[in-house]
Amino acid sequence: MKAAILSLLPLFFLSACQVPSSISRSAVAMPLPGELKVALPPLIVGLEGPTWDVVRPGGENLSAWSKPVNDTYTRVTTSRKVVAITFDDGPHPENTPRLLDMLKERKIRATFYVVGNMVKYSPELLRRMIAEGHEIGNHTVTHGNLARMSDEALRAELRAAHDQIVAETGVTPRSMRPPGGAIKKSQKELMLREFGYPTILWSVDPEDWKRPGPAVVTSRLVNGASPGGILLVHDLHKPTVDAMPSTFDQLLAQGYEFVTVTELIELDEKVGE
Ligand code: NI
């Protein structure tokens, strides 16, 4: 059924008015004027999916989550041996395709917090990410310090990046990561309320942007990983991508399963902290 729904997506985007009757009404409720209806990538076995989502240009996006979510995550609580690996600041025209090849070879899915000012140079890479089962999150347009911005400037950054991702892929970003982790509590609440975005931080930061060398990046990630963890790295940097084959293989050998950030949140066994 999941495959059937996904295979019908191109048809659905072309004409929302001609919905095959074999799809359940709840999954294809007719969009109201001005709304865009999109599907997320399939979730892992045992979870609901695909999740249908409504985005209103005014900024509301409150129906995306199947349960209450926190305004911030650095990790989740789960008995399953899962991690979410996140790649920030791309897409990079050379490093990101190389990384995508590595992920594909191992059937690993990741989450990319892309920057609008990078997306405009390689928009096709966003489509490849989605086609290969990855998730894309909002990392703003300019990669500025959000904590120093007014609410209006914050909204403008997020809205422009959100619309860019939807325009390129047809898929709605579900979460955001603040550049440098700089964000205020009131801003987190605003983003969850108006965009449906939890703020995604991390449990492991190997400081790969300081270029400590691929072996160090790998050892910090492998040693720091724990069930429910969120790993932070940057596909902007070549040595980081160089560190990935060994990182992936060691974590897979330890029995870790890689999930996207949305999947990780859906797996959280602790709700309403
Ligand atoms: Ni960043």
Largest sheet: 5 strands, parallel
Instruction: Give the helix proportion (percent range).
Output: 25-40%
Could you name the CATH topology of the largest domain? TIM Barrel
Please state roughly what percent of the residues sit in beta strands, choosing from under 5%, 5-15%, 15-25%, 25-35%, 35-45% or over 45%: 5-15%
List the helices and strands and how they pair.
Elements: H1 2-7, H2 9-14, E1 36-39, E2 52-55, E3 72-73, E4 82-88, H3 95-106, E5 111-114, H4 116-119, H5 123-131, E6 135-138, H6 151-169, H7 185-195, E7 199-200, H8 214-224, E8 229-234, H9 238-242, H10 244-253, E9 257-258, H11 261-266
Parallel strand pairs: 3-7, 4-5, 4-8, 4-9, 5-6
Antiparallel strand pairs: 1-2
The structure holds nickel (II) ion (NI).
In brief, what are we looking at here?
The chain has 273 residues and is α/β, with parallel strands linked by helices.
Task: Give your account of this protein's structure.
Mean pLDDT is 82; it is low at 1-62. Helix 3 runs parallel beside helix 10, helix 6 (151-169) crosses helix 7 and helix 8 (214-224) runs parallel beside helix 10 (244-253). By secondary structure, the protein is an alpha/beta fold. The chain has two domains: 2-55, no CATH class; 72-266, TIM Barrel (Alpha-Beta Barrel), CATH 3.20.20. The chain has helices spanning 2-7, 9-14, 95-106, 116-119, 123-131, 151-169, 185-195, 214-224, 238-242, 244-253, 261-266; strands at 36-39, 52-55, 72-73, 82-88, 111-114, 135-138, 199-200, 229-234, 257-258. It is built from eleven helices and nine strands. The strands form three sheets. Strands 4, 5, 6, 8 and 9 form a five-stranded parallel beta sheet that branches. Strands 1-2 form a two-stranded antiparallel sheet. Strands 3-7 form a two-stranded parallel ribbon. Nickel (II) ion (NI) binds next to loops. The site of nickel (II) ion has 5 residues, from loops.
